[in-house]
Design brief:
By secondary structure, this protein is an alpha/beta fold. It has 20 helices and 21 strands.
């Protein structure tokens, strides 16, 4: 767990530069930001007298945020090779390349602790939608699903380390690390059936997790609403997570339930962490469905209590009121038991009880129009993409349940959806909470090619820019320095990423330079393939990947590995 070290009231204060009306009354906002930074720098600014006379890169005069939650200071940042070598006012170092950062925020590169950027880097290593928001590191292998062993259809081979080696060979624009998925391991050993693992199978699974840990996995993830992870019991998860005992690396969980049984699911996740002896990170924390919105406050209090008692606890959340998953999530686990063929067989045969279970699930969301089709694997079904299920069914003159079954069968259980089920009030509460980090729960996409197809959740293009633009600048939900902390040192500490998530001499030069006045997401649910604006420069391992808002084509990303013991 990462604790702030500052009172909650201070954590959640309005930005130092205040709401626009107030700032415009007092002075220009940028001048105000400069004034506040200079004042803070008078007693916070470290002085480094050994700055080398000539370096490869210098960012001049920006408002530097260290990633630890301290206010920004006006300073230069000197980089030599892939390392930050000096930070200070008016450094004498001369850079081979110098960037004027006056009036801009200079922070550690952002870290996405819950990313689904896996195969996408093999398709397009430029990671456009993420790097243009300032994301320099992605942690994939989430929701119980990681690469190697099993790739989703039972046909995969290899190991997580071999997958990471293939990414390294391609050379991405961002750094990449991965958890090992408990569901992936279960699929490889037990299969897709609803049954407990035998003692022999459990030991085989533990061995595979141990091999992944030795190969650099950054913890164990679970996806307990998905097949086959949904069939794993608590004892199985404790045994697998215990392979990371002593490493400080976490058990991250898409919990067993995020609506009616949310509070029980949180207790289970915490119990697994205690029994396994590892920190717990709750993935994309939410209280789904209007009848469950009241539970958000209780859920946060439960996590805070565990943290106060000394347990390593954190959570991540994306800044939207809609989630994204597969259309199959509308169906209960027993319908999906046995994998895709068995699932489709039950739907085709009209198995009793399925319709009622789906209608109950939709009722939690509010209506069929709370579900939007985001992607289809079959080109013959592209007519459904971007449409709300209720409206689409009405347009086609069919029952929405029957349309849902048709899509699952014809698309071979590969249809993606966006579901609107959370409240804005709870979203703000979670984003501001001291235990919470920002995540995207999305992938590195692009506005062109294969990764520019469909109508995915806009979070892949906008999560980090949205926090800074909408929730910090416009809503005043939290201070700029605290928002930066939630995107840098907190995820770096969770995954033990040495030399990342901070801006100080001696760390890797992952740096994001953005304009606090203009940074904003532009992607929408109707038109998601749009890059964020206001991110001026991004440096990864000392190499400029974004310069003046444009991708340079550079691919200096590295594979980040966990402790091997």
């Amino acid at each position: 767990m990462v604790k702030s070290g500052r009172p909650a009231a201070e954590e959640n204060k309005r930005p130092r530069y205040g709401p626009p009306a107030l700032v415009n009354h007092m002075m220009k906002r940028r001048d105000f930001l400069h004034a506040g930074a200079t004042a803070a720098g008078s007693f916070l600014l470290p002085v480094y007298v050994d700055a080398p006379p000539r370096v490869s890169l210098v960012f001049r005069g920006g408002i530097v945020f260290d990633g630890l939650g301290n206010p920004g200071i006006v300073a230069d940042v000197a980089v030599e090779g892939n390392i930050v070598v000096a930070i200070g006012a008016n450094l004498s170092s001369v850079g081979t390349h110098e960037i004027d950062a006056r009036g801009l925020a200079v922070s550690p590169g952002f870290i996405d602790p819950h990313s689904h950027t896996d195969d996408e880097l093999l398709i397009n290593p430029s990671a456009d939608s993420k790097i243009r928001q300032g994301v320099t590191t992605e942690i994939c292998g989430q929701d119980g699903s990681s690469k190697g062993l099993w790739n989703g259809d039972g046909s995969g081979e290899g190991s997580l380390s071999e997958f990471l080696a293939s990414i390294a060979e391609v050379g991405p624009s961002v750094n990449l690390g991965s958890s090992i998925g408990a569901g992936t391991v279960r699929g490889a050993v037990v299969g897709f059936d609803d049954r407990p693992a035998t003692p022999e199978e459990l030991e085989t699974m533990a061995m595979l997790v141990g091999e992944a840990r030795s190969g650099g996995a950054l913890g164990l993830s679970s996806g307990l609403e998905y097949v086959p992870g949904v069939f794993a019991g608590k004892e199985e998860l404790v045994r697998l997570a215990a392979e990371f005992r002593g490493t400080g690396l976490p058990y991250t969980s898409h919990m067993r339930n995020e609506d009616d049984e949310l509070l029980a699911a949180i207790e289970e996740a915490l119990q697994i962490g205690v029994a396994a002896g590892v920190p717990v990170n709750v993935s994309h924390l939410k209280a789904q469905g209007e009848r469950n919105w009241w539970k958000a406050e209780v859920a946060l209090a439960t996590l805070q209590r565990a943290s106060d008692a000394g347990q390593g606890v954190s959570f991540d959340r994306y800044p939207y009121v809609a989630y994204s998953t597969g259309l199959a999530s509308l169906f209960p686990p027993w319908v999906r038991n046995g994998g895709t063929d068995a699932f489709i067989g039950r739907l085709a045969n009209g198995h009793a009880g399925i319709r009622g279970a789906v209608l109950e699930k939709v009722a939690k969301l509010g209506s069929w129009d709370a579900v939007q089709i985001s992607s289809t694997a079959s080109s013959q079904l592209r007519w459904a993409e971007g449409k709300r299920l209720g409206t689409l069914a009405s347009e086609r003159g069919v029952d929405p349940y029957d349309l849902t079954v048709q899509l699952v069968i014809e698309d071979r259980n590969s249809t993606g959806i966006v579901g609107f089920g959370m409240s804005e009030e709870n979203t703000e509460r979670m984003l501001a909470h001291p235990l919470g980090m920002l995540c995207s729960d999305g992938s590195a996409l692009a506005t062109h090619g294969e990764l520019g197809e469909g109508t995915p959740h806009p979070r892949s293009y906008g999560s980090f820019a949205r926090l800074l633009g909408y929730y910090v600048r416009e809503r005043g939900l939290l201070s700029l320095e605290n928002a930066v902390k939630k995107m840098t040192s907190m995820p770096a500490d969770l995954f033990r990423l040495r030399g990342r998530g901070r801006l100080e001499p001696g760390v890797f030069a992952d740096i994001a330079v953005f304009d606090p006045e203009t940074i904003q997401d532009t992607a929408t649910f109707a038109a998601p393939h749009q890059y964020a604006v206001g991110m001026e420069h991004v440096c990864v391992n000392g190499t400029m990947v974004v310069r003046d808002g444009e991708h340079t084509g550079a691919t200096p990303g590295r594979i980040l590995l966990g402790r091997r013991n």
